[in-house]
Every structure is written in structure tokens, then in C-alpha cells.
Amino acid sequence: MPTNRELPDLAGRGPGGGAIGLVLTGGGARAAYQAGVLSGVMQLLDPGRRPGIANPFDIICGTSAGAINAAALACRAHQPHQAIDHLVTLWQSLHTDNIYYADIPRLAHTGLQWLGMFALGWIRPQLSHRAPHSLLNNQPLADLLARTLNFPLLERNLASRRLAALAVTATDYTSGEHLTFYQARRAIEPWTRTLRRAVACPIGVDHLLASSAIPFVFPARALLTQGRTLWCGDGSMRQLAPISPAIHLGAQRVFVIGTNDQGGMGPDNHDLSPPYPSIAQIAGHTLSNIFLDGVALDMERMQRINGLLARIPANGLKSETLRPIHTLMIAPSRSLDEIALEHLDELPRAVRTLFRVLGVSPRKLESGGGALVSYLLFEPGYTRSLIELGRSDSMNHAEEVIAFFKEWSA
After folding, report:
1. How far is C-alpha 303 from the chain's CA centre?
2. pTM value?
3. Rounded to an integer, what distance in angstroms lies between the CA atom of residue 56 and that of residue 62?
4. Average pLDDT, whole number, for the chain?
5. Which sign does the torsion angle of CA 250, 256, 260, 265 carry?
């Protein structure tokens, strides 16, 4: 099978072209949107679905649920159309109980444990050792990833030059560092920045579970790293430079798929005396802040740096480590909170009851409950809506997408 460097008609890259990176941000169930965008992109790049077509992305980086999508693509990089088809099918067929236990006995048991700790923990501190580690148990997700991801294929794709690198990010709860775990075709020196560092290692299911461990919602994951055990959680926390891993791994063009709509701060609320915010509203805003796409700020910084670099003579850049980076970002054109509330009734009864106790109502978008639901609603009606929105947004950016990939021949 030819490599992507031998197919300049796909992405406009000749043998001397630079690497193209893909960055997938976090967002729980919102990451279904990314599958739709990728489906649309491949349709634009290769509408005839040519046999043996090469992977358009040399470097794939993901955070939180985006890390799971990134790993799924990397493991099937030798068959990009089939990889995206598989990703779309997986998201379309998901149910909540494929991600976390959603039955009444388990949720009630966890709730009683938390209640007992809060009610009696101040009298008997030893009860804190029996407290659950999170609100929800995502062991079903661990089982799903173990069944569906083939990491030996990832190694083969790296060795056969169908992929240059895969990177996933997580947060170390002990040190507060933002960690990038990467597996690359060639040796790349790990980088260190303020509260950020990279770790070269074989990536596996535990790294994905750590990267997608939403604080309080899913349990942290223990990762053995350089001889130490690190308890890691969601990579979206303290993610100051989301595009940085792709650049460190060699990308010169970066395609970003976000999961937050770029249309504003949400619906207007003209109530001059709003009620006290519900738990759902507070939790929804908290998750929105955790998953806030820092990509937009990162891209603004790069545009300013690109502008400065453009003023430097070409021969003056040879001795510099900085280089121009061309980026393109696609993000939802519609509020995913609104879409989530439209599908609230698809949730299992126990989870739906829990959300309504927390203050979520399908008739109260302004309550903020839609944000909380949008991250945890793993049901086909919702994920299919996000996939269709992603495809539509790709097609609406058709000219930019085609230009982004074809311009690289210059």
C-alpha cells in the first residue's frame, strides 16, 4: 500500500511536504460530532473512495473523548475510510450502559455511599476510605475499548509509515501537571514546559480512560509512568496549549475539531430575578469550563507568531526553532446543549431521574441543565444528531477544507 507521501493528489503533499496534524478536543458524548466532521472531510477529499487511499493525517492528537476517537483512527490508519466508517457506526450504536453503569441498583448504591459519607463522615472519619471514587462507574467503557481497539495495529501503522505519531493527554492529580503521552514512529525528545510535559510510551486503554476521566463523574486512572504511579484524570483540565503536542511531534499544518459551539454564551435570559442556580446548572457550567476549547486562543497566538515570522527573511528562519503553522478549525454551528435536551427522554430511567433531581428539565434550557446532559447522553438519537451536524458543518466549510489539504504542495 502506498504511503500518504506518495499520493500528492489526496492532500497536495509531495515527497518533501510537511506533516499534517489532527487535534480532537474533549467533551464526553459531544465527541460524536467529531466523527461526523471526519466523515464529511473524507467525503470531500476522496468522494470516489479509492482503494488503498492513504491516511491524510500524519499526526493524531486527542484529549478526553477526543483521545478515544484519536486512538480509534490511529489503530486503523491503514484504512482511513473504514476507520471513520467504524467510528461513525460505533457512535451511532452507543447506549449509556455501554459507557457507565446506569441501572437503578448501582446508582442507588453509589448514592447511599456518598450520603453516608457526608452524613456520618465527620463522626467516623474512617468512612471516607469507603467512599466511591466517582459519581458513575465507567467499567463498561473500559470493556468496550478493550474489545474494539487493536493496539498492535497501531504499532504496525507506525512501523509502516502510515502514521507518524499518536498522542493523548491527561492530568496528573498529584503534581497538577498536564501530561502528553505519545507513541511515535521515530525517536522524539520529550518536551517540558511550565506545568506541562510529554512522556514517550506505548499507548493503551488505561491512557484513554485516564484522559477521559471527567472529574467527579468518572474515576481517576492509575498510570505507571517512568517508575512512578500517577493518578490521572481528564486531559481537558489545565490544557493551556491544545495544539502544542501536534507541533512538537512535527505537524506543520493542524486541523482541529472542537466540541463547543462558537456562537456565544448561550440563550439570553431576561429574568431580572432568576432563581438560585440548580446543581445541574452549576455542574454544567463547571464541565463547560473544563472542556472550554483553549484551541481558539491557541490559534490566535499562532496567527500572531505567524505574522511575526512572515517579516523575517526566509534564510533567517533556518536557525530558529519557530516555524509558521497553518491551522483550520471546525466547531459546532449549533448549541449542543439544545440538542441534548431534545433527546433527554432517551436516557435510562434511573439516569433521567438523577438528572431531574439535579435540576435538569427539557423545558428549561436557561437552567443550564443542557450542558450537563450534553456530556453524558450516550444514546443513538443524540449521537446521530451530532454526527449529522458534523457532516453538515464539514460541507459548509468545503472550500476551506479542500484548500487546507491541497495548498500544502506549495
Report:
1. 23
2. 0.85
3. 16
4. 82
5. positive
